[in-house]
């Protein structure tokens, strides 16, 4: 069995690698040869600790990703979040690889956002508003900046100190960033990204201007919500995998909505934005094929078989 450590995968991963792998995974998710299974969310013994399992089977890749969150880990100087991807042999079911992927997971999640922006946002979109100032939000901004010429980033956060620190980090990376309110951020934005753990809408629907693209990245379990439902009738809705999105993703809050999987837009089976005034929304609930495809790319990069 092959094992890639966290140190190895952190050195191998990049926004470019993640983009390519996740784009291929989102296309694979629309194939009849791909099966994605219901997500298992479970609790750990520590208060607020949790772990999850996401699994999938494609023609060439079989396996699952486990993600964990142990909130007291910071007291021991170790990360609170952990991710490992396990790959099985499609022929025998034997475990062939375990890939430590905690940092990789941040790139993988942000890559789905970047793909959605690439295919759904207006080509002249240049102002990005991000809701959230946590670990994942940095990767979201970096992934979008890597594929679009962003002129301004407006950061909306709950905590002023954390928001100021986040803006300074972006500025030090050469990304023009500023602090803004939720209303200001929405009214100025061509692209809105929500990367929070919210359980209620972060902004009002009427603050979003025509032609805006929104990537909702935070909802991955029942009860989470970042967007106002009043926005849905005005928008074109897209997701990574519909049957998962309507159960644990942002679109669990829709009723009988027309939702298109982004893989169908990538392959031109469906259209993205029909005109420049369309509001487009992409829900990323995070699907197992993304993890399998990224892990496979990392194994190729590591030159192991």
Automatic annotation (TrEMBL):
<dbReference type="Pfam" id="PF02423">
    <property type="entry name" value="OCD_Mu_crystall"/>
</dbReference>
<protein>
    <submittedName>
        <fullName>Ornithine cyclodeaminase family protein</fullName>
    </submittedName>
</protein>
<dbReference type="GO" id="GO:0005737">
    <property type="term" value="C:cytoplasm"/>
</dbReference>
<dbReference type="InterPro" id="IPR036291">
    <property type="entry name" value="NAD(P)-bd_dom_sf"/>
</dbReference>
<dbReference type="InterPro" id="IPR003462">
    <property type="entry name" value="ODC_Mu_crystall"/>
</dbReference>
<dbReference type="InterPro" id="IPR023401">
    <property type="entry name" value="ODC_N"/>
</dbReference>
